[in-house]
Amino acid sequence: MADMGAGGSIAKRWKLLQGSNQWEGLLDPLDSDLRKSILIYGDHSQAAYDAFISDRRSRYAGSCRYSGPRFFDELGLTKGPTGWGYSLCKFIYATSAIDLPLAFFLTSLSREAWCRESNWMGYVAHVTDAGKAQLGRRDITVAWRGSVESLEWVADFDPGQASLSTIVPERTGLEEETDRVARHDARVQRGWFNIYTSDDPRSPFNKTSARDQVLQELKRLLEIYKDEEEISITTTGHSLGAALATLCAFDIVLNGINKPHGRATPIPVTAIGLASPRVGNDAFKKVFDKLPDLRLLRVTNNHDLIPLYPLLGYTHVGVELRVDTDKSPYLKNPGNASLWHNLESYLHMVAGTRGKNDPFKLEVDRDISLVNKSIDWLKDEYLVPDSWWVVKNKGMVQGNDGHWTLAKPGDDDFPLPDHD
Prior knowledge:
Elements: H1 9-17, H2 32-50, H3 71-74, E1 86-94, E2 119-127, H4 129-135, E3 138-144, E4 161-163, H5 176-184, E5 187-189, H6 190-197, H7 210-224, E6 231-238, H8 240-254, E7 269-274, H9 282-290, E8 294-301, E9 319-323, H10 337-341, H11 343-352, E10 396-398, E11 404-406
Parallel strand pairs: 3-6, 6-7, 7-8, 8-9
Antiparallel strand pairs: 1-2, 2-3, 4-5, 10-11
Helix pairs in contact: 1-2, 1-4, 2-11, 5-9, 6-8
C-alpha cells in the first residue's frame, strides 16, 4: 500500500506534485514525495483490477466483486501505519455502441448473466477528513479500470478515430483557432471514446454513459465541498484505464467542471497514467496543451510495447516519467511483453526508480510480493508464489449435497444500479 505522507511534506507541496510546474525538476532524480503520490494513484488503478470479476464462467463476470462500504478494506488498502485516507463515492459502469475486444469489455458465458450490456469500469473516491490532513487538500479521484486480457488484442487493434465534437461545449473559453480545432479536427481512438460516452437504455447500469456518471458525481461532490479552499481532481488508470483517464481529465477541464459557480479559482485537474497508449491525434494534443489547469503525467516502462500504440495518426500528451524494469535486482529479467506491461511491475519500479543513470533501490516500504500478484516475475529466492491474488477456491463453494458451484456474491455485494 502506498504511503499517504504522514510526514506532511505531500500536504505542503501538493500543487507541485500535481503538476503545477509540469513536474520540472521532480523526475530525474525522482522526487520522494512525487514517488509516494504516484504510488497512491497507482494503488487506485490496481484496485480497479483487483475488484473486477474477470472469469467469464461466472454469471457476474464484468462486475465488481465488492460493495462500496467494504471496497477498500477487502482490497487490503486500509492496512498500514498511515491509513488509506480515501472513501468510495460511486461506481462507474460503461457500455459501448461498437464491438470491442474481450480485453476491453467482458461478457459472461452464463445465460443468467447479471448484465450483458454493461461492465464495471472503475469508481470515484474522495479524501476523508483524516486523509485531507495528510494530503493537504480534498482530492477527488476518478479511477478507471484497464484491459484485463492478454496483449493479443494489439494485433487486431482498430486505429479508427472519433470526433470530439459531441463533448465540446457551446462555449469553451479557448481562443478562436483552438476552439475550431476542438470542434472539427481533434480526434481520439473510437473504441475508448465509445466506452466513455455510450449509454444503453436496455441496461439498468447505463441509462447514462460512464462520462455522464463521472461528471454528475463530480458536480455533486464539488457542491458538497464548495466552501473548501484546497481541492484537486485526479484521474488515473493503467493501459486502457490510462487512456480513459486522459480523456476524462481533458473533458472535465474543457467543459469547466473544475470551475463550479461561485468559486474564485479553478480546481487543478491532473491525470496520472501508467502504461498509457496514445490517445488522440495532433489536433487533440494541440487543444490539450491549451487547456489551463490540466496536467498529465505518464509513467512508461522502457520495454513496454503498449505506449507505442496506435502506431500511426496518434501522438502522446503530457509529461513522461521513464522507468526501466531491467534495473530491478528483484526480477527474473529480461521478462516479456506481458510482464513489462503489468501494473504492479510498474509500481515496483516507481518505488525504486531514482534517476535515469542511477541504480534501482527501493526508497519506500512497498512489499515486493505485490509484483507476483497476477504474474510470475519475482526471483524464486523471495519465496513468493506466482499469481497469488485469487479468491479462495477460485470462488467455488461446496453445497450441503457435496456438489461444488461458483458462489454468488454476498447479499451486500450484488451489483445494483444507481438510482440517484
